[in-house]
Amino acid sequence: MKKYLPVIFRIIPALILLQTLYFKFTGSPESVYIFTQVGLEPVGRIGIGIVELIAAVLLLFPRTAWLGSLIALGIISGAIMMHLTDLGIEVQGDGGYLFALAILVWIFSAVVLWMNKTKLPIVGSRFN
């Protein structure tokens, strides 16, 4: 099990990020609403979608997982802040589902980054 844990911790945030891309890239009403509320529609919706795609792909590979997790943490921290300020925890009656997914991505990405801390440029050598 210990062998598969790093893989599980990489796959879960990658899958969550990837499954939300459909809504961002197709301009679903929910996604347009969210990005309109925070003043980033449509450029932010598409741009953030592209960055999330990059993060998800990087998370899938052990060699680049540290970078994917770092990017995911940055993007998802912004999403969490938007939920805590402009959007609210519950968006359009979703019961806080999107917020919960954001928290999961943040936690799993933080764990992946910690698991790969020695691979970080400049500071990684301090963890040996």
Question: Mind explaining what this structure looks like?
Answer:
The model has no long low-confidence stretch (mean pLDDT 95). The chain has five helices and no strands. By secondary structure, the protein is mostly helical. It has helices at residues 5-26, 29-37, 43-59, 65-87, 97-115. Helices cover 70% and strands 0% of the residues.
Strand and helix map with partners:
Elements: H1 5-26, H2 29-37, H3 43-59, H4 65-87, H5 97-115
Assign an overall shape.
Answer: elongated
N-to-C terminal Cα separation, in Å?
24 Å
Helix fraction bin: over 70%
Beta-strand content: under 5%
Poorly predicted ranges (pLDDT <50, ≥5 residues)?
Answer: none
Could you give the count of β-strands? 0
The figure for the number of domains is: 1
Task: Output the number of helix runs.
Answer: 5
Task: Report on the biggest sheet.
Answer: none
* SSE run: HHHHH
Mean pLDDT: 95
Task: Give the radius of gyration.
Answer: 15 Å
Q: Classify the secondary structure makeup into a structural class.
A: mainly alpha
